[in-house]
Amino acid sequence: MKNKILILSSVLFFGIAISYIAFGWSEPTSSMPSQYSTPINTSVEAQDVSEGKPVVANLNADKLDGYEASDLLALVGGSQPAEFVVTEGTSCPAQTILIATYYGPKTCTWTDVKCSSSGVSPNIECKTTFTDSSCTTSAGWFQNVPTCNMMKVWIPCSGGGGTSSCSGSGSVKNETCSGVVTYVLCLTIDAPE
Question: Among residues 104, 110, 159, 109, which one has the least CA distance to residue 137?
Fold first, then answer.
C-alpha cells in the first residue's frame, strides 16, 4: 500500500510541475532589437544579400542556397549577371572563376634505333635501323590531363660487317606524352545592381 501512495504522489507532483511550466510560459511582448533581422522563416521582409557583398558559387554542389545547379546555369545568357566565357590560353582573366579546361591534341614523335642482322654466320651483316614513331593525346574538355604512352628504343649495333654475331647495347624506356591546355571556360559574375 505504501508503494501505491508513493507512486501516486510522485505522478501527481510531476504532473503539477509540468503544468506549471507549460501554462506559466508566455511569448515575449517586446519587439526585437533593430540591429537584428527577423528569422527567415517568420519574416515578411525580403532576405536579400547586402549590396557589394561577394557572391561565391560552386556549381558542383547539388544545391546552392536552395537552388539546383541547373537553375543557376539557367541564369547565364539572359538578363542575369552571370555568363560563361571561353578564353584562349591557360588561365582565366581577373574577376572570373575557372570552370573547365580544354586540352588540344598533342603529338609526340621519336625515332626508334634498333640493331638488326642479315646473312649467315660467319658473314653476318649488322646494321642499325631507324623507325619513326608517334602518339597523339586526345582533345577535349577534361578534368585530368590526357596522356598517351610510348616506349622509346635506343639499341644501336656495336658490331661491324662480316662478323659471326651482332650485338647492341642501349636502353628501352617508357615515356608519357601529356596534352596541353589551349582554352579555359571561365564564369563571370557581375556585382548586383
Answer: 104
Contact predicate 59/82, CB 8 Å: no
Half-sphere exposure of 161 (CA within 13 A, CB side): 0
Q: Are 148 and 135 in contact (CB under 8 A)?
A: yes
Query: Would you tell me how many other CB atoms lie within 10 Å of the CB of residue 29?
Result: 5
Which cell numbers hold the place of 100? 573547365
Which grid coordinates are listed for 5?
501512495
What mean pLDDT comes out for the span 50-69? 50
- For 143-147, the CB contacts below 8 A with 24+ separation are 143/100, 143/101, 145/103, 145/178, 145/179, 146/103, 146/178, 146/179, 147/176, 147/177, 147/178, 147/179
State which residues form the domain around 157.
107-136+146-178
Percent of the chain at pLDDT exceeding 70: 68
Instruction: Let me know if residue 116 belongs to a domain.
Output: yes
DSSP string for 102-121: EEEP-EEEEEEEEEEEEEET
pLDDT band, very low/low/confident/very high, at 63 (cuts 50, 70, 90): very low
Query: For 138, how many CA atoms within 13 A lie in the half-sphere containing its CB?
Result: 8
Specify the number of domains making up the chain.
1
Residue 166 lies in a domain: yes
| Burial category of 171 from C-beta neighbours within 10 Å (exposed 0-12, middle 13-18, buried 19 and up) | exposed
